[in-house]
Each structure stands twice: as C-alpha cells, then as structure tokens.
Amino acid sequence: MKHIARKRFGQHFLTDQGIIDAIVREIAPLPGDHMVEIGPGLAALTQPLVERLGHLTVIELDRDLALRLRAHPQLTVVESDVLKVDFTALAHELCSAPGSAPEPWPVDRVGVRVVGNLPYNISTPILFHLLDHVAVIQDQHFMLQKEVIDRMVARPATADYSRLSVMLQWRYAMDNVLFVPPESFDPPPRVDSAIVRMVPLAKPPAIDLKLYGELVQTAFSQRRKILRNTLGKWLEARDFAGTFDLQRRAEEVPVQEYVALAQAAQS
C-alpha cells in the first residue's frame, strides 16, 4: 500500500536516485560505524546506508512507517518523537561493549554518527536537542531547508548571521555540502533544500551552555538595535564588571567574542 505523506509530520520523501547517491557519498558510511538515522520515511536513504554499514538504528515517529521498517532485518527501529530520544543513552547502548558500565564514556569510542532528512517544521528544536548530546556524537549530516543551513554557516556582518549561527558555531565546524532542489522529493516542498555536515569541535571552549544560550537570545532579541539596549541591560542585571563593546548590533559580533563574554559573565 502506498504511504501518503502526512503534513503534521512534515513528510517529504526523497526520490531522486542521483541525489541519494550524492548524499551517501558525502556521509561516507563505513562498515562498523554506529549510525542513527532520524526520520527514515520510505527508506530511500536508509537502504543504501544499511548496505554499507551492515546495521542501522532509525528513529521514526510515524506508526505505519515504523511497522514497515521493523520488517527489515538489519534495522533497529526506535518509534519515538526524536525530541524525546536520549541520544547519550542511545550512544552508550550502541557503542559500549556488552556488560560494560555506561559511565564514563569509553575513551576508545568516537560516538555515533547521526543523519537524516529532518522535518522542516521542527528542525531547529532538533538541532538544539542534539547539542545537549554532542559529547557522544562523531558527526551529523542533515537535509534541511537551504535558508536554515545558510543561517547555520553564516559569517558575522551578513544578513544570515543569527542566533542559530552563534549557538551552533561555538561547538561545530559546519559546511553546506550539497544543494537539493524541490523536485527531488514527493511531494515537492515549496523551498530549496541542502545537506549540512556538522562535525563537533575536538577541543570546544568551556562554557555554561544555559548561560550562553540566554546571552545569545538576549543579544538577538532585537537584532537591529545597538546591543546596549538589549545585552547591556542583561549584563547590568548580572553586575558584569568587565568590558565589552556594546556599540554594535548583535550580527556584528563574532562567535568567539560571544563565547568569551559568556565565560567572563559566569566567573
């Protein structure tokens, strides 16, 4: 029976074989990789991945699709909302030897590789959810709206530089690696898509992520205003005694300066 795409799940199924092959080349799966696919759908990407990996764990919310996927002998199906999945626990389950203690994270393991065609309506919440589990992730390859990826990889003082840029670039090296046109899907989305590669930094700066998130959100809350009107008040409320140039707009401040300010504000 043909599966009808469900709007509430933001389903757009990839059908272009040339694009599928190009995505698999960018992911470069190797036998033995511990990989997790978010939203496998009709398994267009799933099948070529599992053929190279030998086994694949998939996360699927749609009950009917999850039932179909369970019939595949090389798949482990997690039927769940991805925002409720504990990726740290899942990584330990996949990467740790049987019977070994889940803590500390094994030093000889590089973590799980996460891939997927993310539902465009909740892509940002998924990215932030994964940020909480980045310590157990080797890399991420995602299909997203091109305009979202443009914001993710944007440089300071550009129109696309945003809260999303700053919240992700402190922790990942990211590249837009492939353009995907609407006609590659059924049904076609009304937007262009792309593939982003996200590799966690080997030596990320030490910050209080909750504080950093609050700082960045405050800075970009009124991005066209000078920071003294937004971030200045936030720093004043925290009795911040350091120095920071507040005569700029949020989009003019490089990521490393936001990181340094967060580190100074928490000390």
Layout of secondary structure:
Blueprint: E1 13-14, H1 17-27, E2 35-38, H2 46-53, E3 56-59, H3 63-70, E4 75-78, H4 87-95, E5 112-117, H5 123-131, E6 137-145, H6 146-152, H7 163-169, E7 172-180, E8 185-186, E9 193-200, H8 209-219, H9 231-237, H10 255-266
Parallel strand pairs: 2-3, 2-5, 3-4, 5-6
Antiparallel strand pairs: 1-8, 6-9, 7-9
Helix pairs in contact: 8-10
Write out the strand line-up for the largest beta sheet, numbering strands in chain order.
4-3-2-5-6-9-7
Give a short account of the largest sheet. Answer: 7 strands, mixed
- Beta strand %: 15-25%
Number of helices: 10
Q: What Rg is obtained from the alpha carbons, in whole angstroms?
A: 20 Å
State the share of residues found in helices, binned by percent: 25-40%
Low-confidence stretches: 1-10
H and E string: EHEHEHEHEHEHHEEEHHH
Sum up the overall morphology in one term.
Answer: elongated
Instruction: Assign the structural class, choosing from mainly alpha, mainly beta, alpha/beta, alpha+beta, or little secondary structure.
Output: alpha/beta
Count of DSSP strands? 9
Q: Mean pLDDT across all residues, rounded?
A: 90
From the N-terminal CA to the C-terminal CA, the straight-line distance is: 60 Å
In short:
With 267 residues, this protein is of the alpha/beta class. It contains 10 helices and 9 strands. 33% of the residues lie in helices and 18% in strands.
